[in-house]
Amino acid sequence: MLDVVYPAVDTGFLADQLLKTMGLKPDTPAPPAHQNNWDESDVMLITYADTVQRSNEKPLQTLFQFLEGCLKDTVSAVHILPFFPYSSDDGFSVMDYLSVNESHGEWEDIERIAGNYKVMADLVINHMSARSRWFENFKKRVDPGKDYFFEARPTDDLSAVVRPRTSPLLNAVQTDDGERYVWCTFSEDQVDLNFANPQVLNEFVGIIRYYLERGVTIFRLDAVAFLWKEAGTPSIHLQQTHELIKILRLLIEHHTPHGVVITETNVPNRENLTYFGNANEAHVIYNFSLPPLLINTLVTGNCRHLKTWLMSMPPAQMGTTYLNFIASHDGVGLRPTDGLLSEQEKQRLINTMESFGGKVSYRRTPDGKDQPYEMNVALFDALKGTAGRGADHWQLHRFICAHTIMLALEGIPAFYIHSLLGTENDRERVEHTGRLRSINRGQWNLDRLEAELADPLSHHHKVFTELKRLIAIRRRQPAFHPNATQFTLHLGLQLFGFWRQSMRRDQSIFCIHNISDEVQQVFLGDINLIGTDQWQDLISGLKIDDLSGSLTLRPYQSVWLSNRE
To answer: Which residue intervals of 107-266 are DSSP H helices?
Structure first.
């Protein structure tokens, strides 16, 4: 692996250096191959360190209290979005990888959370803040930092570079030995690191070890697809990037056998799947196509594209799985729908989200055109109506249906905190920050939040209570193990269904969802329930006595038909 990335370097010496930095001996035993570091009880919460706050208290302490008080038996893992000192992008422009933002708390607060939950931290590996010490040293031409950032020339062939933004790719910087042009995939304040310098890799191995020693066991490799750059290429998904992921995984799992690598690659589905490698790159990849396809399904009342996508998804090898989510701190990506939705269908979806108060962000293509990149909208508002009829009274039911589907799919379910709470579009925050993504990055006072969650008339209470109930059911079902068998059912365009079977073959669950705003009939003969088993709906408790009969599903109702309680 090192030979592919660094053909001109003494890779034997480099390997010894990396092992020493990670605190590993050459004879450290390898972890078991194809080991699943998860089961059906795993559910992840995604949150910023300061999403829930209380006066006169550090937010990480408040987050711990919220987890213990409201989610102790609901989630097993928590993704704390970048909690480091930063200069922009709500944390993703890191100034110091080894410090906790003083306004959030201290490492001890992270360690306390890690004592009760699996903690996922962002390894913001592609770029660093232009206000960081490393970049200041880059401008002074001293180490550490002198050769840590990627440079190019305006005369280089950059015509094929794939961009997720419309900002300039190169930015001129005055240094102590003249003007240089640094590569900025995302923004002028986020300068791309130069992994062609093996010392940068060694620095990040040291950072990883530091996180592991403080209880972090899941590493989200942020924007990793852009890691290796070369003029004259798209500078995305290059082979060196894949080899570097393999190296980092190898080091992590030798240090901590239950450590997990997740790649954040918001790209078309086929490209995303390559980050599994041969079960030797990411342990887990995000199911980036799920959010836009599921939202599209529920606002159109037609599951054709969602079903086509599900049938095309390969079962993950043992030791790998998918991370299923419908919303996150970012917007709903549109690139993962390439080849799945037509341009006309994408535009209809965009128009629908805008009618529900959403916004649209753009990216610049290699030919200089701006294309829609993501839809910025709170999920609760994204599902407030349909594409044809606008807002309606089915918002809550549609929202719960979306999560019932996500909870049952192959993979690990992850809930963005604002979805778990039913938070609406935060238009004031967008106006305050000037950033479209702020629409789904609001903050809650914990006392006010707890009052809302305790009020039976509040939609926040209704969302939170029902999602917690569904999660509790899910966590008890072996057929919902992230690697359990999954097959798509063919029940028409208004009923989305799939079958899960436990790895011991002793439990089957038929997951059927009415994704329309009209009543639908499910003929039990169409799904081949085994007549010698006793079947019941895990969600409602309804027992199925007549296997030749049918079920009537209300708009957006779901059933999980299981042959065991």
So the answer is: 107-116, 133-140, 198-212, 239-255
